[in-house]
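Example record

The entry below shows one chain as it appears in the dataset: sequence first, then structure tokens.
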Amino acid sequence: MAMDSAARAVAGMLIVLYLIAFVIPTAAGQENVSSPDSGVQDLYLFMEEEDLVDLYTRGDASEERLNGSARLSPDGEDIELEGVRFRGTSSRELPKKSFDIRFIEPQEFLFGSNDMNLKATYTDPTMMRERLSMDLFHVLGQPAPRTKYFDLYINGIYEGLYVHVERVDGDLLESNGLDPAGTLVADDFRGNFHLPEVNRASVFGYPIDEQDDPEAFLEATMDSRGEPDWGAFRDLVGWVYRTPAGPEFEEGFLERFDEENFIDWLAIHYLIGDVDSFGDDYWLYLDADNPDAEWMVIPWDKDLTFGSHTRRGATVNDYFGYESPIASGWDNDLVEKFLETPGLRERLDLRMAFLMNEVFTEEYYAGQLDAHEEAIGDRLNITPGEDAFALHPQNHHGDLGYTAYHTEAVLDFVRLRYRFIERAIAPGSGEPYTASAAIPAEPEGSTVYFTDPGGWVIATLEVAEVTEPGTIAATVNRTGINPGIDRRWRFDAGDAEVRGELTLYYRNDVESCCFPAENWFVVDAAVRDGDYSQWDLRIAREDGSGNRTTLETYVNPYSNKASADVSLQGTTGFMLVLPDQAVPVTG
């Protein structure tokens, strides 16, 4: 992936230092990338009408399992079930339900487990984020749930494409070469706000030693599997609380944690922008038989990744963002103190630089997206009918027919997120919304990024022809008018002259937990609202008198971008306008 010269130099230095000082095997792992299987497994669920009505009309939070049976084909043998219920927390309130199905016997098609976590991924119009994310951990040889696509039929009616995510339990541990009887604890503190002494989202940062019976308190407030060593977990929580960030924390961390595992876990979360992961979306594991064992982390729940997250209190939206900070989140002092400890933060930065440039490249993601698209086929565009979606509205919340745009937005997230992380590793200087990029003599076919000091990408240029190399400066300024997007992009090419596809990025966001709540569109809708639609935006070139000439433009509102073929020489201005605004103006 292309980057400006300063960032490339910093990244190169970091990679060399990384290879010398902190080698974690990855190259061999990439040759064994976990990829989608050749198809999607059918699952036919059968329930008595009375039980089905009960399932969909009782309270969403009910944990009671209802009777049913399953088959792998319409005329296949019945497979006995222990029961069926909905699964998830906030996802239970969504119109396409996720399911927890428990079988009487272990099933080969569930990786040998008897537990099935069918995730609806209704908030993800690509339905790929969960699988893409978990595969990253597998590439690095880190423990993580395996995933598999299923077509779910309920009483003979197609009710959607689903992703089964392997349960984190002894079976998962054993399949990863770990002790199946080891300690497994999930940070479930934020699920206990009803308790008067619980006032934070993570147990890390809680004064556990102030409890009369710390181990009993942890057992009551944490999620767990098997028979955890609560004493060992109490010691870990107490150490995090007592130890300040710095050399003492670094020494204690390296004694207690599997360094490679933890740093990979953290690095991947920042690469994919998972800002929802440091509350209850991970498990901690400790080998029960090894007195010198180190804690490891196992990921969970990766739907809110690659730019997808809550806006205005809801996850069902089409907004796009990649600037979530490299920070703790959910009051997690373990992560926060790690980041505030220079020696540990340096290790993380080295690892992220290496993974971005050598392992999880743009080419890696493009190949994975292609494989997932081939596996899923056209399922995302299935519409309700006589044989489909009697209980659910459709596969995902978004407009049907735009799968290619949604998938492109995932790849755009990677490109832009990496630029943001590069700036976080090596901060730039200068004013926001200003950038410069060097155009070498022969960069044809490369992509040049105009990234401002804060890590926001003003524009990209896919270079087709260079007549004269040089440095091009870019700025974005408010216009005082709003013909569609209330900004003007200016490019000062100096002596340079270059031709290629220019992509302008604009801000279109609202209140959220994690991204700048800034909108430049005429309305604050993610894609369209009434007569205003971002699909209608066109790039307009401005001459010295302020006259606009609209260009043939490609728009992807799910990435907040518009592209057109241009030539840059001298000073050139561009705006993004709606069709009825392509008229001469001044200003």
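Notes for this example: Confidence is low (pLDDT under 50) at residues 5-36, 582-587. The radius of gyration is 26 Å.
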